[in-house]
Amino acid sequence: MSIPSPFHCVTIYGPGLLGGSIAKAVAKHLPGCELRLWARRQQPLELARQLGITEHTYTDAIAAARGADLIILATPIGAFEDIARHILPAISSDCVVTDVGSVKAYVHRTTGQFLTGRGRIFIGSHPMAGKEKQGLENAFAELLEGATVVITDDHGAPADKVEQLTCFWQALGCRTYAMDPTTHDRTVARISHTPHILAGLCARHAYMSDVPLADMQRLAASGFRDTTRVCSGPAGMWADILWENDVAIRQSLADAVVDLHKLIDLLENQDKDGVRTWLEEARTAREAIRREQPGTNG
């Protein structure tokens, strides 16, 4: 069942996995909304038309922005400010510009500051959703179903605009959660960015050992697959994330190294009870973090 769209015209810059999934969710849940897609190349736009997502496709960034009342930046984070500068003349003072980047303080400090300093409205968003396979061909509307979208309003946007954006994400089946950008970045460093790095470490650690590759290939099963799955994501995108959230990530990794040394010491000291306690604490921590919290909308 469709509902009235909080926005009349939504333009998404970057129809990759996340941008494409948002586009599919808009087409599914908000059919009365004019949906526009912008990409540098025709190939993903042709695919969008073939899939019936929308006929409103652009390689002209300014034309794609003209008349939109919601603009979503879904390209790599490093391109946000350049796009914002380019399309500025076409962004109306009533239009909401948001992004879907996984780092928020950097985006507010650059793109957000640029736009709000010129009388435009910027509110950050971060849908906590994704998968290792990228591209529009892997996008699906259900990626957003039940996902938490963090809303970061570091520039004091009008309350009705924050509410409008919140209603948009909720209309796509998301839950919303307001945070300040710095707290957001410290949090995702712990529950998203560091796990990605450690998944990469596990894969590198196995591959670079002196254990025969053929043996590892035969023995690697669901544990290795599930633990290392996320490090299959695009290296360029993740290099940008690590660069843009480096302070929080460095602190997180430093703490992880301390805890790893604690486990090494327990093993060296033949402290089996201590190892058991370490593992029990890990299980308890996971269960506590994964426990559903009430009141995540609004």
The CATH topology of the largest domain is Rossmann fold
User: What's the shape?
Assistant: globular
Query: How far apart lie the N and C ends?
Result: 22 Å
Number of helices: 12
| Tally of domains | 2
What does the model show?
The protein has helices at 17-29, 42-50, 61-65, 80-87, 105-116, 159-171, 181-207, 213-219, 222-228, 235-244, 246-268, 272-290, and strands spanning 9-13, 34-38, 56-58, 70-73, 96-99, 121-122, 124-127, 148-152, 175-178. It has 298 residues and is of the alpha/beta class. It folds into two domains: 9-179, NAD(P)-binding Rossmann-like Domain (Rossmann fold), CATH 3.40.50; 184-290, 6-phosphogluconate dehydrogenase C-terminal fold (Orthogonal Bundle), CATH 1.10.3660.10. A six-stranded parallel beta sheet has the order 3-2-1-4-5-6. Helix 5 links the parallel strand 5 and strand 6 (121-122). It is globular, with a radius of gyration of 21 Å. The two termini are 22 Å apart. The mean pLDDT is 93.
Task: Throw out a few tags for this protein.
3-stranded mixed β-sheet; 6-phosphogluconate dehydrogenase C-terminal fold; Rossmann fold; alpha/beta; 2 domains; 298 residues; 6-stranded parallel β-sheet; globular; 12 helices
Summarize the structure.
The protein is α/β, with parallel strands linked by helices and 298 residues long.
